[in-house]
Amino acid sequence: MGIARGAIADPPLNPDARPTSREAQPLPDTRKHRGAGPRDHEWFGPEARPYLIAATSDLSWLLTRGYAEPSSLKLVGDRYRLVERQRVAVLRSACSDQSLARRHANRIVAPRGPLRIDGFNLILTLESALGGGIVLGGRDGCFRDLASVHGTYRRVEETQAALDLAGRFLTEWGIGACTWYLDAPVSNSGRLAAMIRAMGWEAAIVPDPDSILSQPGAPITTADSGILDRCGPWLNLARLLVDQVPGAFVVDLGSLQPYHQGGPAPGGGEG
Asked: Where does residue 164 rank: exposed (0-12), middle (13-18), buried (19+ CB within 10 A)?
């Protein structure tokens, strides 16, 4: 199966592109900021974005029709000659029509009462926004970071500012008590939990926050796709907070894209 070519021209050959979507081996994180990578302004700049947006649309089209995620990402990444970091961004920004409809149906706009917060998911996005790192705008309207803890979390200079930002606006919006759920297997969870408790919130260190947040209960806040496809009411808190950060490096790859509605392949007839 192929994807029909559209009005967008084939991207120029990228000498840094990789032929597969295999994840590179993580390196120890010694950064003081969760800022942009050394080539992010090139890989996610104005010239690259049309191809990344098209790739996100193509991947969403394939996922909607039930094609496997790994092979679909490879097909799309190879077509647009994307480097590994771009492929990760496209994967994090795409979703099927079915997932999109479910997420929109469960999203709440004006919460009242307590919230359950996906702790690392929120804090990493806020740290990235405050530190000048990429924040991705996904097809479902969520804002997501490109950072990853790889089993180890390190506080950065923006960590306290991220908590202050959340605290200020949660108070202004009249949201009640919040519980932050942190992954027990991630090192330094206890240190982050102590900072959260110092802000007056509850912090629970649990083996698997995803399973808890997917269960019925108070509304949750997360941008984790796996949780969003299973949970009940959720608040797009990361986006609401990043919108308050002047000059944030937001790369919107899909939130303005319409449903494909089972129509033709992106850019033309059926692939």
From this structure: middle
Instruction: Give per-residue pLDDT as tens, 183-197.
Output: 999 999 999 999 999
Task: Give CB contacts under 8 A, 24+ apart, made by 102-110.
Answer: 102/228, 102/229, 103/140, 103/142, 103/228, 103/229, 103/234, 104/140, 104/141, 106/228, 106/231, 106/232, 106/233, 106/234, 107/141, 107/233, 107/234, 107/235, 107/236, 108/219, 108/233, 108/234, 108/235
**CATH class of domain segment(s) 107-251:** alpha beta
Show me where the domains of the chain are located.
Answer: 40-94, 107-251
pTM: 0.84
Q: Strands 202-206, 134-137: parallel, antiparallel or unpaired by DSSP?
A: unpaired
Q: 207-231 pLDDT, tens per residue?
A: 999 999 999 999 999 999 999 999 9
